[in-house]
Structures are given as structure tokens and as C-alpha cells.
């Protein structure tokens, strides 16, 4: 219901602006200014022809981007093209040239005076004279909080809450993206040897710390680290030479020794992977070989 009324309010406001822009008298501009100056959302009218300029910008833009932004854009209509995020630049160009779907809200990022980028959602209406686009008008709403919340939810859905590494869902999505490709892939499987003992002897908080230390060792050497559950971690590398992959495997083994973390590692690399399960099973077998060897070494010591 809130979204419905919000849409109705935006529609009414844009209709009002459309009416006012057709009436070019000084009185209408003053009326429009009084109507919009108190609004929290940013309202603007931008003339494309015959002169490239802002006809109106509500003062609330200064509240979001910094003092003086409105005055700067009146003086220099190209300031907005410098403030737009580079990834959104083409979207802005399309908006003022009539090459966007004006029926859909437009998400974009604008730079503040102190260099930060904030997310805004815009509802835009084109103004035509005959078949020619002469202006665009819009209502821009700050949606930074909503975008940040959505990004946090996306992050949480793909990351392990305890260690911060990628989770099984992210792992499955990565493998799915590789399904129709034939590329070089390397897999390193890590299985902790002492997690159960640490949990039993020192409590689950100590076990959690061991998992976090393990994640730290791995993420200090690779960004593609996944915790698939329990004490099992996986490192993935794609489109990398075998020599680099083998070196990473050795570096990780040495790092666990240096951190005094007992872990069994198994790795496998194939130049062109058409069957990821076969590659993973090979790494898994190698991990169990290493685990068995570590147990034998431990029993000889004792």
C-alpha cells in the first residue's frame, strides 16, 4: 500500500511539473519553485533544446551532494556528467537523448562533494515538442540505505557468517557459471584434523576461533575461498597456469605449518574441465591420502 501511494504521489508530482514546463511564464516557474523547494526528494527540469541547461533543481540536492551543488549545476550543466559514477555515465547520456525506458525507475550513483558515491532512484518523464525531445524532468529519491540493506542481504546469503568466506551457495553458483565453459580449473580441498578435539577439550568458542584462523590463512592467499560446512574449506582457481596453481598449493601448506594448524590438503588441476565433479573427486581423494599420511606420522611420534 505504501509503494502504491508513493507511485501515485510521484505520478501526481510529475504531472504537475509537466503542466508547468508547458507554461513558460515567470509566474509558473515561481509557483513550481514554491511547490518543490520544501520537498525532500530532488526535483529537476533539464532543457535539452534549444539550450543545454537546468531550468530548475530543488534545493534538497545540496542536502545529499553538498552545499553549492545546485548553484554549480545551474552555472555548468555538465557538472552532473562529471559527478555521475563512471559505470552509470552511459545511462545519463541515454536519459537526455531519449534512449531509455522512461516507464522504469532509473538507479544511479552520484558523487558528493567529499568524493563518496550515493545511490539514487529516479522517475523520469521526457518532454517532447512534436517528435523532438526538448527536456527531461524527474524526481530523484535517495535510496542509499535501501541499497546498502539489499547489498548486506546479498552478502549474507553468499558468505559464511562465522568466517566471512564464501558459502556453499556461492560455491554452487560459481560451479554453475563454469558449466558450459572448457577452462583450466584448480581445486584445493582443506579438511581440519583437530576441530572435534578442540571442541571437546576447549569448547565450541575455541573451535570457532580455529575455523576463523583457518579462513584467515586461506584468504590471505586467495579470494576464492569457500566453507562448505563443518571443517571443510575449498579454494578455487580458474584460468590459471598449473605452475601458479601448484605454487599456491605449496604456499597454503607452508602457511598452515607456520600457523600450527593441522589440516589435510588435496589438490587437483585440469587444463580443460568439462566434468567438475571428476576434478573435485580427484582433489578429495588426494586430501584423504594426505590425511592418512598425517595420521601415520602422528602415531609414529606418539
Task: Briefly summarize what is shown.
It is built from twelve helices and nine strands.
Textual characterization of the structure:
The protein is of the alpha+beta class and 302 residues long. Helix 9 (195-202) runs antiparallel to helix 10. The strands form 2 sheets. Strands 2-1-5-4-3 form a 5-stranded antiparallel beta sheet, with helices on both faces. Strands 7-8-6-9 form a 4-stranded antiparallel beta sheet, with helices on both faces. Mean pLDDT is 87; it is low at 1-12 and 18-28. 50% of the residues lie in helices and 25% in strands. It starts with a helix and ends with a helix. The longest helix is centred in the last third of the chain and has 26 residues, at 276-301. A hairpin with a 2-residue loop joins strand 4 and strand 5 (132-142). The protein is built from 12 helices and 9 strands.
Amino acid at each position: 500500500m505504501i509503494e502504491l501511494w508513493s507511485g501515485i504521489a510521484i505520478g501526481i508530482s510529475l504531472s504537475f511539473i509537466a503542466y508547468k514546463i508547458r507554461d513558460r511564464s515567470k509566474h509558473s516557474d515561481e509557483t513550481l519553485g514554491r511547490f518543490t523547494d520544501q520537498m525532500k526528494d530532488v526535483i529537476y527540469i533539464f532543457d535539452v533544446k534549444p539550450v543545454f541547461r537546468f531550468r530548475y533543481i530543488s534545493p534538497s540536492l545540496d542536502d545529499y551532494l553538498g552545499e553549492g551543488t545546485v548553484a554549480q549545476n545551474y552555472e555548468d550543466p555538465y557538472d552532473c556528467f562529471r559527478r555521475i559514477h563512471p559505470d552509470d555515465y552511459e545511462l545519463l547520456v541515454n536519459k537526455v537523448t531519449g534512449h531509455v525506458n522512461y516507464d522504469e525507475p532509473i538507479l544511479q550513483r552520484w558523487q558528493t562533494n567529499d568524493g563518496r558515491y550515493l545511490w539514487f532512484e529516479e522517475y523520469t518523464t521526457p518532454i517532447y515538442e512534436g517528435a523532438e525531445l526538448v527536456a527531461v524532468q524527474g524526481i530523484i529519491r535517495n535510496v542509499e540505505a535501501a541499497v546498502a540493506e539489499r547489498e548486506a542481504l546479498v552478502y549474507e546469503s553468499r558468505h559464511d557468517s562465522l568466517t566471512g568466506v564464501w558459502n556453499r551457495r556461492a560455491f554452487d553458483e560459481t560451479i554453475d557459471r563454469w558449466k558450459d565453459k572448457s577452462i583450466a580449473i584448480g581445486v584445493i580441498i582443506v579438511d581440519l584434523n583437530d576441530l572435534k578435539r578442540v571442541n571437546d577439550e576447549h569448547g565450541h568458542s575455541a573451535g570457532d576461533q580455529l575455523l576463523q584462523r583457518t579462513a584467515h590463512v586461506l584468504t590471505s592467499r586467495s579470494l576464492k575461498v569457500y566453507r562448505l560446512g563443518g571443517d571443510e574449506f575449498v579454494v578455487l582457481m580458474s584460468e590459471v597456469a598449473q605452475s601458479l596453481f601448484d605454487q599456491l598449493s605449496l604456499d597454503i601448506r607452508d602457511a598452515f605449518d607456520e600457523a600450527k594448524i593441522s589440516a589435510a590438503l588435496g589438490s587437483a588441476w585440469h587444463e580443460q574441465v568439462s566434468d567438475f565433479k571428476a576434478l573435485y573427486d580427484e582433489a578429495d581423494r588426494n586430501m584423504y591420502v594426505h590425511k592418512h599420511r598425517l595420521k601415520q606420522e602422528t602415531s609414529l611420534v606418539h
